[in-house]
Amino acid sequence: MANVVKLRKGLEINLKGKAKEKKQPTRGSQEYGLVPDFFVGVTPKVVVRPGDHVLAGDPLFVNKACPEVNFASPVSGTVTEVMRGQRRRVLCVKVKADEKQEYRDFGVRDTGSLDADKVKKALLEAGLFGYVNQLPYAVSTTPDTTPSGIFVSALRDMPLAGDFEFELQGNEDAFQTGITALSKIAPVSLGIGIEQKSTALTAVQNAKLNVFDGPCPAGNVGVQINNVSPVSKGETVWTVDPTAVIFIGRLFLTGKVDLRRTIAVAGSQVVEPAYTEVLVGAALSDILDGRLVNTEHIRIINGNPLTGRVSSQDDYLGAHTSEITVIPEGDDKNELLGWILPRTNEFSVSRSYFTWLQGKKKEYDLDARIKGGKRHMIMSGEYDRVLPMDIYGEYLIKSIIAGDIDKQEQLGIYEISPEDFALAEFVDSSKLPLQKIVREGLDVLRKENE
């Protein structure tokens, strides 16, 4: 029987441009790019050179700190460029796709007959192990860690996020196979929303089902872990994106690395927000071709507006990206006495504008402006109202800024990831980059504990 967890803290932000549940075709990209930055905590070491031919599933780079963990090419083709930045940092490995795709055959496996070591070995060989993350530190994990549990959240409730139930259609067998494979390593917990009714989720096998009833960020896997099984110091848990579960299931069912995923193309600057099926690493220029209302004064985001990365049409679809969103940048707006206007179409957490009288169903066309300058941190309890975790958010942020590691540990830094503070960053009157602060704090802590 499912465990129902009711959460009351949080905030729903109803943005204009949510994707409708229909698929639109996207032309296949001629060139694909695998971006190491989307695998947090990985220092890449490239194992291919321009001119090399690779099959779909062949490694493009490995984790320098753990060379066993490699990252597979989404397509077969010729490596065209290893793009580097400052200090020769690897930014992207580009592959020109073959007209006829060829796949590295890893062999079909029956998950029922496998043990933990064989599942790990299969994921390492196929370049899919890097899609598994861990707490603490919210980074891509390594095979030498022993998780006490594996957590998967099938609930996406960030603004304009893609609906996983829609993506799951046609992939039910692969999802169940992926869950079964992961359950060989450690007990699996699957988190879903109270309104999700897909039998592939509600009747999942080989996993404990937790149903979350509450506003955003109830879908954050870190929030779910905190409310079901908090992480203690010295303990490690793995977290897996639900789409990565499908990737894993396809590997065992077909013996191939198939990185197709259904993403939402959403936002007020998209002509007809809908879903499309593309490969990880697809060019954003191909995904957005013919779909933009404007080509100037817009912000393209690899992900949702709260946690995604600012991108351009020259970039590539991220490994964990379930939506591409396009919203107004706001850099072309000049408002006289903007702070004193009634703002009948603006969203306000504090009900400063009259729009709150129009109900929760009103859609807002918000732009990317911060509307205020960075200032000293105000201890006002703003974070706690939107953070459904048993931690003192404001005190934890202060301890990270101060560099007090002992205090960070006492306040629960091992349980959090940057995305958990996305809503707090949105409502923060001090305009602090909370997700960046948390990420830097976790990186320092990880380095200290190595």
Give an overview in words:
The chain has 450 residues and is of the alpha/beta class. It is 22% helix and 21% strand. The protein is built from 12 helices and 19 strands. The strands form 4 sheets. Strands 1-13-12-11-14-9-10 form a 7-stranded mixed beta sheet. Strand 7 and strand 8 (90-97) form a beta hairpin. The chain is globular, with a radius of gyration of 22 Å. The chain starts with a strand and ends with a helix. The mean pLDDT is 95.
List keywords for this structure.
alpha/beta; single chain; 450 residues; 19 strands; 7-stranded mixed β-sheet; 5-stranded mixed β-sheet
Give a nutshell description of this structure.
The protein is an alpha/beta fold and 450 residues long. Helix content is 22%, strand content 21%.
* Tally of strands: 19
DSSP summary: helix tally = 12
| Biggest sheet statistics | 7 strands, mixed
Percent helix range: 10-25%
Low-pLDDT segments: none
Mean pLDDT: 95
Distance between the termini: 40 Å
Sum up the overall morphology in one term.
globular
Which structural class should the secondary elements be placed in?
Answer: alpha/beta
Oligomer: single chain
Strand order of the largest sheet: 1-13-12-11-14-9-10
Strand content: 15-25%
Question: Helices and strands in order, then pairings?
Answer:
Elements: E1 3-6, E2 31-34, E3 44-46, E4 53-54, E5 59-63, E6 66-72, E7 77-84, E8 90-97, H1 116-126, E9 132-135, E10 139-140, E11 150-153, H2 164-168, H3 172-183, E12 188-193, H4 199-202, E13 208-213, H5 221-228, E14 237-240, H6 242-254, E15 260-266, E16 274-279, H7 284-287, E17 298-302, E18 309-311, E19 323-328, H8 382-386, H9 393-402, H10 405-410, H11 422-427, H12 434-449
Parallel strand pairs: 1-13, 11-12, 11-14, 12-13, 15-19
Antiparallel strand pairs: 2-8, 3-5, 4-7, 5-6, 7-8, 9-10, 9-14, 15-16, 17-18, 17-19
Helix pairs in contact: 3-6
